[in-house]
Amino acid sequence: MSTADHEVEVARPPTYNDTVPVEQQVVLNEKANMDMDKENLSMTPDGGEPTEDEKRSLRHIAENLPVSAWLVAIVELCERFTYYGMSGLFQNYVLRPLDGSQGRGALGMGHQGATGLTTFFQFWCYVTPILGAIVADQYLGKYKTIVLFCGVYLVGLLILVCTSIPTALEHGAGMGGFIVAILVIGLGTGGIKSNVAPLIADQYKRKKMALLTTKKGERVIIDPALTIQRIYMIFYGCINLGSLSLLATPYMEQYIGFWSGYLLCLCMFAAGTLVLLLGRKYYVVRPPQGSIITDAFKALWMMVKNRNMDAPKPSWQLEHRGVEATLPWDDHFIDELKRALVACRVFAFYPIYWVVYGQFSGNFVTQAGQMQGHGIPNDLMQNFDPISIIVFIPLLETVVYPLMRRLRIPFLPITRISLGFVVASLAMMYAAIVQHLIYSAGPCYGHPLCAASEIDGTAYGNNVHIAIQTPAYVFIGVSEIFASVSGLEYAYTKAPPSMKSFVQSMYLLTNAFGSALAEALTPAAFDPAIMWMFVGLACASFLCGIIFYFIFRHLNAQEDDMNALDADDPMPEAPREEARRASQAPQ
Description:
Elements (H helix, E strand, L loop, with lengths): L2 H8 L11 H19 L11 H6 L1 E3 L5 H21 L2 H6 L14 H18 L1 H12 L1 H23 L1 H5 L3 H29 L7 E4 L5 E4 L1 H19 L6 H7 L2 H21 L13 H15 L7 H8 L9 H16 L3 H8 L5 H7 L1 E2 L11 H23 L6 H27 L14 E2 L2 E2 L2 E4 L4 H24 L6 H21 L8 H24 L1 H4 L1 H5 L9 H12 L3
C-alpha cells in the first residue's frame, strides 16, 4: 500500500449512532480524527504499509527507543536497585541471631523461618499489582498511580531503616518493624510493577508495520512487535543492572550493618522518584478508562453463566434475547476482553517457573552459606544472575536474534517461553548436584555448619568452594531472558489498550501463585531433603516447558494477527470511551 493509499484510508467519513445527539457525535468524531492524525504521524515512513508478500520476503527490523522510554527505564532501574539490594539481605536478616555465632544477624528465626518470611514477601509483592492495576486503569492512569505508590514505598523503606539500626534491634523493634515494612513495601512495589512495564511500552506509538529503505538501499520492514520485544529486553536489562546493588549491600551488611544497606536503597529509590517527577512532561500518558475492570468482571460472569464467549455482546443479546440490552460496554470491548483472556491462559503455566526462579534469592543463599566463602558473603553470589542477563541480552539482541531473522528462523514468544522453562530446569538440576557435593564434603558432611566447621565461633561451611555455585545463577538468568522477558512482552502486546495494566497484573499474579507454592515447599527446606526438592523442581520445570509448547504452539502462527488488533482499532481509546458513555446517557 502506498503512502497516499494509507492517507485515504485514514481520512474516512465519520460514523454516527442514532442513540447519540448529532451535535455530540460531530464533536466526538472531530476529536477522534484529530487524535488519529496525531497517532498516524509516526505510523508510516517513506514506503507506507507492506503487502503480505513483502511481509514474508523482506527483513523485519526494530526501531530505536524514544527518550521517554529511557526515562521510564531509569526509574525502573532505581526501583529494582532498591528491591533487590534490600530483599537480598532478608534471608540473613531473618535467619541469623543478632551478633550470633553465624555472623552478623538480626531476628534469629532460623532457615525455615527465614525462607517462610522471604517467600511471603515475594508472594505479597505479586498480589498487590492487582490493586495498582485497578487504580491505574479505572481512576488515576499509570503515571499518577506510579507516583502515588512511590510515596507508599518510601514510607515502608523508612520503617525498615529505622527498625534495623542496632539500638532498635536491641530493644525488640526488629520483628514488628520488619513485618510492617514488608507489608508497606510490598504494597508500594505492587502498585509500581503493574504499571511501569506497560508505561514504557506506551512510549512507543507505532502500531502497524511499515516499509523503510536503509542507507545501504535495502528495503526492510519496521516491525512494531520487534520493537516492543527490544523495549522489554532493554527494560529487563535495566532491571538487572539495578539488581547489581547486591554487589554493595552484602558488604555493607557484613562490615557496617543491615541498616546501612537499607539506607542506601532508600536513597536510590528517592532519586528514582525524583527522575519520575522531573520527567513528567516527556512521558506519553494515557488517561484512565473508567470502570473498565469492574465491567470486565461483569462480562466474564456473563460468559460463564451463558457458557458463550460472545454472550456479553449487545449484538448477541439482541439476537438471542430479542431485546436491546442496556450494557455498559459495546461489542468491541468484548472482543478486547476475549483477546486478553488468550494471554491469561498462557500465563497459567508460569507459577511453576516462579517457584524455580525464587530459589536464587532464598535457598540458593542458604546453600552458598554452607560452603567455604573465602571472604565472599553468601548473599553476594546472587549477582551472577543479573550479570549473566546483562551479558546475554546484548549478545542476543545484537547478534543472535538479527542472525535468526536474516536466516528466516522464527523465534516467537511461545517458543521462547518454553525454552525458558527448560533452561530453568537445568538450574535446578545443577543446584541439586551442588547440594550433593556439599553433603559429600567435610567437615560436617550431611549437617553443614556444624560445630566442626566453626572458627572463633563462626561456622564456615563444608570444604566446597562457593564459586562452584555460579552456573546455577547463570542458568536462572538465561531462563529469565526467554521466559520472563517474553511474558512481559506477551502481557503488553496481547492486552487491549484499555486493560494494559490489568493484564500485566494478571501476569505478575502468577508470581504470587509461584510464591504460594514455594511457601508450601518450605517444610522441605532442611538438610538433606532440600536436595530432592531441587530435583523435583527440575523435573516439574522441564515437563511444564514441553507441555506448554505443545498446548500453545498454535499461537505462534497467530502472532502477527493478534498484534495487529490495536492497529485496526476503529477509534482511539479516549474518544471511544467518551462515545460509549455518551451512548448510555439519558436522552
